[in-house]
Amino acid sequence: MTDRVLIFDTTLRDGEQSPGATMTHAEKLEIAGMLDDMGVDIIEAGFPIASEGDFAAVAAIAKASRNSTICGLSRANFKDIDRCWEAVKHAAKPRIHTFIGTSELHRAIPNLTMDQMAERIHDCVTHARNLCEDVQWSSMDATRTEWDFLKRTVEIAIAAGATTINIPDTVGYTAPVESADLIRRLIAECEGGTDVIFATHCHNDLGMATANSLAAVEGGARQIECTINGLGERAGNTALEEVVMAMKVRSDIMPFHSNVDSKKIMAISRRVATVSGFPVQFNKAIVGKNAFAHESGIHQDGMLKNAETFEIMRPTDVGLTETSLVMGKHSGRAALRSKLLELGYELADNQLADVFVRFKELADRKKEVFEDDLVALMRQNDAVEDRIKLKSLRVVCGTDGPQTADIVLTIDGVEKSASTTGDGPVDSAFNAVKALFDHKARLQLYQVHAVTEGTDAQATVSVRLEEDGRIATGQSADTDTVVASTKAYINALNRLIVRREKTAPDHDTKGVSYKDVGQ
Ligand SMILES: CC(=O)SCCNC(=O)CCNC(=O)[C@H](O)C(C)(C)COP(=O)(O)OP(=O)(O)OC[C@H]1O[C@@H](n2cnc3c(N)ncnc32)[C@H](O)[C@@H]1OP(=O)(O)O
Ligand SMILES: CC(C)C(=O)C(=O)O
Fold first, then answer.
1. What is the residue range of 343's domain?
2. Same domain assignment for residues 269 and 354
3. In which residues is Mn(2+) bound (predicted)?
4. Sign of the CA dihedral with 310 first, then 315, 316, and 317 last
């Protein structure tokens, strides 16, 4: 038996407070829908008094909510609380969250004495409780608040009817042992401490937000406040994906669980990164591009033999399809063999040894060796040169069509040029290739995979062609999407030509025999 820990997501409130992370009304509704869908217990949908837009978003999320409790934040005054209630009351399960800074530094802001603040807390929680059964109190900057006063604020809030008591580490100052002790002590020593749920809300200023949240749970907290991708003020909040997966992966040691469907983590992480404009760092725990990627030979060999050697969770646990074995200068023979097999090349040991030498040479020159590079490496073995090569491309596009393409190709060593039109720049470029190299292959797939960030953004394009049941896929990357598309198209055509020419699947070339089982 493990204890349930409630997951309180504040991506739409604290997360949106990250400078530049503002989301539109529609985006907030979409993210709230995804959070609700993945089993998040409480969604803090916004700060209704902050603006008409925030109010409208919280109200709309409340109306659309299905299973999650919908919460709004309000300062410790009646006007904020009333506005919050107006927004959240539409939810099947509404919550009012009210707070004030209780540390000495924060008491000085509204210039309240301890007694005046205590009275304010009593009045505000009582008022909120008269509106809503589910009231959360936060003593902001709790971890820097004097113990006696913190205990007093918590007891007042409990006596006034708060059902959840949040102990925020507002500036990310605390450390795990202190975090656990503080919650343990509050539960044990506060009047009514065992009748409410204690929550933890940690910031990541010192990189300890996840550790502090989990320690608070060890201390007795049963609600973790967090955000997707750890979005939030300054260095961010506790990352939802980290605490959810930590409890799941370590369930044998930590007797806690959440209700979140971890398989939905990747999808929401990507969506939040897109709508907030905050890309996820490559080595971010759980959701980073490299979280399930392995480049070094010893790791790759281990992964191929038993994934548990270098992974404590499977990519499928978070909604990814597979582990990625990235080919680079640290990769070994086992990974190369496996990758080539995936690409359709089955090599004997001596053949692999030969290819491996050239692979290492290439890897020394390139950061990452892509599948295309490996195919090119194998085709060198095969002594097959591309019959079609792109020499130059010039495309004119814009609002007034038709778009035109001027292309120069080298086909079997002879330079040829054509000018064509099309429905858009990519279509006109593809028509130009076809004008010079006639074929009856059908375009099955055209996909712009990824565009990296920045002014030198790279478009990675895939093109799949089908001819008489033979399928060939071409890929290319370029800072110009039309050039990437045309190169991918030509790449697919070249592969199709090779496939046309191959009659038997097994053959011997230059002493290296391999089996091309297609893509
Ligand atoms: C740690 C956290 O994340 S706290 C939440 C932070 N989130 C936000 O601030 C949400 C966005 N905020 C806003 O849109 C605006 O600040 C508003 C609408 C809330 C208030 O705007 P304004 O009335 O113009 O006040 P302003 O932002 O300049 O200053 C904050 C005021 O709130 C008061 N205040 C701050 N926290 C609290 C609180 N918890 N309870 C009561 N009053 C508070 C301050 O004393 C100050 O009051 P004053 O103007 O009388 O000195
Ligand atoms: C309002 C509270 C919960 C907060 O965001 C903080 O203290 O960081």
1. 293-381
2. no
3. 14, 201, 203, 237
4. positive
Q: Is the pTM of this model over 0.90?
A: no
Q: What is the pLDDT of residue 504?
A: 34
Domain for residue 91, yes or no? Answer: yes
User: Two tokens at 342?
Assistant: 């995936």
The mean of the pLDDT values for the chain is: 90
Q: How confident is the model at residue 516 (pLDDT cuts 50, 70, 90)?
A: very low
* Ligand 2 pocket mutation, candidates 136, 173, 201, criterion most atoms within 8 A of CB: 201
Q: What percent of the chain shows pLDDT beyond 90?
A: 73
Which atom of ligand 2 approaches the CA of 10 most closely?
5
Assess whether 407 and 354 both reside in one domain.
no
Nearest protein Cα to ligand 1, atom 44: 110
Taking CA atoms, 160 is separated from 26, 104, 137, 314, 343, in Å, by 36, 23, 10, 46, 66
* Phi, psi of 82, deg, nearest 5: -60, -45
Whether residue 408 is found in the same domain as residue 474: yes
Assess whether the C-beta atom of 121 lies below 6 angstroms from ligand 1: no
The CA R_g of the chain, rounded to the nearest whole Å, is 29
Is residue 193 helix, strand or coil?
A: coil
Annotated binding residue at 201? yes
- Contact 347/355 with Cβ under 8 angstroms? yes
Instruction: Point out the ligand nearest to the CA of residue 164.
Output: 2
User: What is the rounded CA–CA span in Å between residue 497 and residue 489?
Assistant: 12
Check whether residue 449 and residue 369 sit in a common domain. Answer: no
Question: Taking 80 as the threshold, does the pLDDT of residue 445 lie above it?
Answer: yes
**Mean pLDDT of the region 366-385:** 72
In a domain, 509, yes or no: no
In a domain, 282, yes or no: no
Beta pairing class for 414-422 and 442-451 = unpaired
Q: Please tell me whether residues 164 and 136 are part of one structural domain.
A: yes
Please determine, for residue 517, whether its predicted confidence score (pLDDT) is greater than 80. no
Q: The complex's ipTM?
A: 0.96
* AA identity, residue 127: H
Average pLDDT on 44-55 reads 98
Q: CA 386 to CA 489: how far, in whole Å? A: 13
Q: Are residues 118 and 171 in the same domain?
A: yes
- Check which CATH number belongs to the domain holding 426 and give it: 3.30.160.270
Q: Does the beta carbon of 110 sit less than 6 angstroms from any atom of ligand 1? A: yes
Does the Cβ of 232 fall within 6 Å of ligand 2? no
Whether residue 198 lies inside any domain: the answer is yes
For the stretch 163-210, pLDDT in tens is 999 999 999 999 999 999 999 999 999 999 999 999 999 999 999 999
14 is in an annotated binding site: yes
CA 62 from centre of chain: 25
